[in-house]
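Tutorial sheet, problem 5. The four components below are modelled jointly, 650 residues in total.
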Amino acid sequence: MANIKEIARVAGVSITTVSRVLNNHPYVSKEKRAAVLHTIEQLNYTRNMNAVHLITGRTKAIAVILPYIHFFYFSVIVEGLAREALLAQYRLILCQTDYRPEEELKVLDMLRNKEIDGVIIVSTALQPEVIEEYTAYGPIVTCQDSGERRFSSVYIEHYSAFRHGLEYLAAKGYHNIGYCEGRKHGSSSSIRQSAYRDFLAETELPFLEEWMIFDCITEEDGAAVLHRLLNMTKRPDAIIISGDHVAAGLIIEAQKHNLRIPADLAIIGFDNQPIGRLLGITTIDNQLFEMGACAFRIIHDQINGDGGPPVHLKLEYSIIERLTV
Amino acid sequence: MANIKEIARVAGVSITTVSRVLNNHPYVSKEKRAAVLHTIEQLNYTRNMNAVHLITGRTKAIAVILPYIHFFYFSVIVEGLAREALLAQYRLILCQTDYRPEEELKVLDMLRNKEIDGVIIVSTALQPEVIEEYTAYGPIVTCQDSGERRFSSVYIEHYSAFRHGLEYLAAKGYHNIGYCEGRKHGSSSSIRQSAYRDFLAETELPFLEEWMIFDCITEEDGAAVLHRLLNMTKRPDAIIISGDHVAAGLIIEAQKHNLRIPADLAIIGFDNQPIGRLLGITTIDNQLFEMGACAFRIIHDQINGDGGPPVHLKLEYSIIERLTV
DNA sequence: ACTTGCTGTGAAATCCATTCCATATTTTAT
DNA sequence: ATAAAATATGGAATGGATTTCACAGCAAGT
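Model answer (structure tokens):
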């Protein structure tokens, strides 16, 4: 396979000149440029990018850490990332780590290894302190609210968004409010739990341990929630659910059992998913696509700019009123 | 930043010895190994992987070409890919190309550039002939039925699967069968269209141009389909829809308009999505996760094995009978 | 006529690890 | 005791580009 040296030899110029042509540098005469381009064509030459990466110390690649890709939440964020990456001609390395810390650390090590120019953490099992140690090796952006860390973040305020949802339900006259969550442990999950507990405590609304339902990941988990609700001696009259698809599961199952929404059970979801739009689910929009897009733009700026202080960008959520409250 | 030379100097050994330790090669004395490891620790050294990639000519990275990630179909295939990639300790480079040929070609060029060890094409706008030209530079696997090409593939037989669905509807007594498709142009889309036309022609069932409905991508497109159906003078009594989420949109909208499923309209979907399970949609399961997993295993074998002839792996689909037919 | 600045060109250093080859020492087999 | 094999180690070539530096020629400014 031809290399730059070969091109130089055949074209009768120096290696430097070939490199200049390759990189569109000035100060190459028309004749030599043409000769080089012709030789490149003729020998079917392409640059070995690994050599370029080695000498430049850049790869135009960014790693994305997330646990799974086939969840709506993650896939929309990645969609936002990918759109911007395409525009900026960067590569995204999808590092699906299943929330395994050792795998996530391997990805951060890629930053030390110079394999990548930055890391975008969509969701992680790692502590912020651990992530901070890697800021020495390159820019890192999270899509979680991690406080004033040495790495950047794009986030919505889950505490506030969640409370807003609860206040909305309370204002509509619902006083027995349940709560559905995905993972029990997890940074934004914990924030939402505190918001829930704090709100109920402050407003002196009833709090039952069994009204906090965890591990609701899929549509079918949502359907299962209905049966748990039906078996309760005291049942909530409203429920806040992280994920419209889970809410959809609950609603569809509720229809089968003639439970009226919102008369018997009010529901507010999250993520503003298409299925929620269709079913008329009242939801909290958290700008997932925009979050991905912003995360990319931030890291891109940090890679190509001054590499100044970390950016903390708060996105605004909004409650979309529909028919389930 | 420390490099291997520095480690060798400080540890008082040769560069070769450091490399041996790094790569777990035999023939290094306990003492020297310990000294090297200690120095590595002390100087906080890590390999520059770009140098490794350059000299070895391998990157343990595989590019994945697809148009969007936030569609169920693609995200589940990628989930399958990612699981296997994690096991094999390979990196996936997500190349979301929006079906732009020029971007897809750039990805294939990465194979020439030695940036990646292989390419998995989940869905593409390129012609098979174009893809074949790149097989010279490394292994390529598609998740589409492309015939006996010089690149590998994992696929289900869309023609046969689609006909099977139609036969199933016909056998159940439905004779006016409509058809909902995502993109009008596209390789598996065209195959399904032929299957539809062929079947109707052969069985002499009624064929109306307006019963072929295209650009049904989202749940909401599915809902829109209902309104098109309602406005038809002659309406199909059954419909086959590529994508359960689109079917779900149609079904949910149908409920709102008191159209009974399947009495007024039978529906068969594709992909065996969770939302379909929940709504009891009869569907054709096309093993998306498995398709991704197999695609990865095939390319992994080709990279690390003999690099023999292309593999063409056919996966079996199955009709899952539920309540909408 | 003379400095300054721009254009054009190439030699050589650099990025950093892997690996082939040569050599030295020690162990095992005959 | 001696040949053969295994262990241990390092020198130097290699992979393929970018970039700094030095220098030459030529046009413009004073």
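Marking note: Chain B has a mean pLDDT of 95. Full credit if you identified this.
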